[in-house]
Design brief:
Radius of gyration: 26 Å
Structural class: mainly alpha
Helix content: 55-70%
Number of strands: 2
Strand content: under 5%
Strand order of the largest sheet: 1-2
Order of helices and strands: HHHHHHHEE
Distance between the termini: 72 Å
Length: 291
């Protein structure tokens, strides 16, 4: 009986952890795709005329918005982009007082969540159209545009897999109010009651301590599994999606600022003059390491 109980607990715990780990890996795939697309778009457009640069900046903001839309979609926080208080601020841990990312969305965009179309998929159309426009205007050559398409497809694929984790219910046998789940707990409690009689002859009073440790371990494994079943929520042990998304937004914002500076001053990105944190002009080393 002890082996059966341990097997059931470890199996459930492993299944729950796989959901958590897969969710984190798929989020990394989305972030990597956004980074790669951002790098490609900015590196190939910092010498564009103003009208085309405006289009590039718009699409970079859409890429950032995709991260927020993914996070909110997985949490079923519909409308977080426009409704205050529907997302958690990473700095305070409280509900946001302003719309989370409405400034990143294209002007005039209307959501179709009420008709079953997620905002993430909706925003990828803007990225697809930008890649097509860039290829038609010879911003990107064919292999480059094809690689961008691969990155975008990988992003959508990872989003779909995360959605599968979120929407696939836990088997009813593992739900707290199911008869099988109640039966599992009853068997575990019965095992805890019987185990002392099997150990008392050999261990005497030490059987109390051993039984306590065994039952503490089994109930702990059971609790860990229940905590990891939905990795996209707000609990402390869930994936820190708010912090991760905000970190990537800060990273891309720095790239965008550097891209604007390079375009205005005629330098390549990350070389030439820049403003340091103290407001004084600094010199960034050139490609040969000479300041």
């Amino acid at each position: 009986m002890s082996r059966i109980l341990v097997y059931l607990r470890v199996f459930r715990n492993q299944t729950s952890y796989n959901r958590f780990w897969d969710g984190r890996n798929y989020l990394t795939i989305i972030i990597t795709s956004v980074r790669n697309l951002t790098r490609s778009f900015l590196a190939n457009s910092h010498r564009f005329p103003l009208s085309d640069r405006v289009e590039t900046e718009r699409i970079i903001r859409v890429l950032i918005a995709i991260l927020y839309a993914t996070k909110n979609h997985l949490r079923a926080d519909w409308g977080a982009e426009i409704i205050p208080g529907t997302a958690i601020s990473p700095s305070t841990g409280n509900a946001t007082l302003t719309p989370e990312y409405s400034d990143l969305l294209p002007k005039g965009l209307y959501g179709c969540d009420d008709r079953g179309l997620g905002l993430v998929l909706q925003l990828t159309f803007f990225v697809e159209q930008y890649i097509k426009k860039g290829f038609d205007k010879s911003w990107f050559h064919a292999p480059q545009a094809s690689q961008m398409q691969v990155q975008l497809n990988g992003l959508v694929d990872a989003y779909g897999r995360m959605e599968t984790i979120r929407l696939t219910p836990i088997p009813i046998a593992h739900l707290y109010d199911s008869p099988w789940r109640i039966h599992q707990k009853q068997v575990l409690a019965l095992f805890g009651c019987v185990l002392p009689f099997a150990l008392v002859d050999k261990m005497d009073y030490w059987a109390i301590l051993v039984v306590s440790l065994v039952m503490f371990t089994l109930y702990g494994i059971d609790g860990i599994g229940s905590q990891l079943e939905d990795p996209f929520g707000y609990d402390r042990n869930d994936i820190k999606m708010d912090f991760i998304v905000e970190d990537i937004r800060s990273e891309i914002s720095v790239l965008l600022e550097e891209w604007k500076r390079a375009g205005l001053q005629g330098y390549d990105m990350f070389v030439g003059k820049r403003q340091d944190s103290g407001g004084q002009d600094g010199i960034v080393s050139d490609m040969n390491g000479v300041p």
